[in-house]
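TL;DR need structure tokens for one chain.
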Amino acid sequence: MSEVDVDVAVVGAGPAGSAAALRLAERGLQVALVERGDSPGSKNLSGGVLYPATLAAAVPSFAADAPYERRVVRHVTTLLQRESVVSLDYTDSALGAARGEAAAAAAPTTAPNAVTVLRAHFDPWLAGKAEEAGAFLMPGLKVEALATQGSGSGTCVVGIVSDGSVMRAHAVVAADGVNSFLARGAGLRPDPRPDQLAVGIKAVLRLGEERIEDRFGVGPGEGAAHAIVGDATAGVAGGAFLYTNRDSLSVGIVVRLDALVASGRTASELIEHLLGHPGLARYLEGAELVEYGSHLVAEGGAAMVGDVAHAGLAVVGDAAGLTINSGLVLRGMDLAVTSGLVAGDAVADAVQAGDTSASGMARYAAALEASPAMADMRTYARTPSFLEREGPYGPWGQAAQDVLRSAFVLDGAPRRPLRTLLRGAARRQSWRTWLGDASAGWRAL
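>> reply
TL;DR here they are.
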């Protein structure tokens, strides 16, 4: 196809799509960044923790003008039971905690290790950077399908279809979310299996800056990220999170779709269970519910990525299944940004070489495979199967509770050695359970 309306159409102005549009525009291509919402982020309640190293390298002004909420200086991992909370609380100067006036003064020019963001604020900023580079933002435009030529293995993407009209392009970058309706509709990607998807429900609670800093033990501009397993999801495979924004909290659950269906519970029941949990009361008390919503999350790990490049098409971000749940951190936005930047360079090379065939676009798949994002996906490839096990959702927390109760609750009886307490806790579960968890954990992590 020689005559086109734009060189590249990017569908979706989230982190992956805007990063791709930014890089494509920097490479001198005509780029349309198409967003179905009235503005980038307008349909996205989501947010969370962003690890911005890659983005900060691509956008040097990130530290100075990105609308992030707080620098994450505390990572807390919690085993939550109905009557107990056992946590590992990690803080470190390497996380960017300010140490004196010199460190505070350096903060505006140094990208933090991790920040919390609200996508309704963050997405417009990143899309704006793509516009500054020369991309043309087209909000309020719903893309119905990919325009294609040929069939079967010879299918070639030649543009996008919206309201019955075709926008012709040398290539399309699909950043249309975890379901990737565009690539699936064209028969270029399979439907994800239920065990590769999770349901995420998140609530935003207004609390106020001073109360957040007091309750979470952080200073001005600093924040905390809590990863929670156990009774947080009432035993359903998954976990919960609690992040500090500037004057609000992001709190929610992510549970496997197949496990949720098997449990007979609803996602709304689980989020109500979490918000009312006594173990979180000291953080949430008095907070005002601002909004809440749900969305699907990729949970299949590296096995879900599959084919990301086709003739005329590159699939990025959530649409490509790029999400990591290591059990300690949830990552998606940084992987989305990396894939978008990698796709931007690879697609630009293909368009400028006049070869957007399957072989020409394969340079994106090769570049993504060689990127740190895919290296990390491979590192945690076995984590999804590990997180299917029962241990994190009850036995671990119960064992920790039993041991610590015996150590700290002094009732006048003689204390028993710690080794005896550990043996007693271990015997409450099958030794096969503990060995299985240990073996699976070793392989996964």
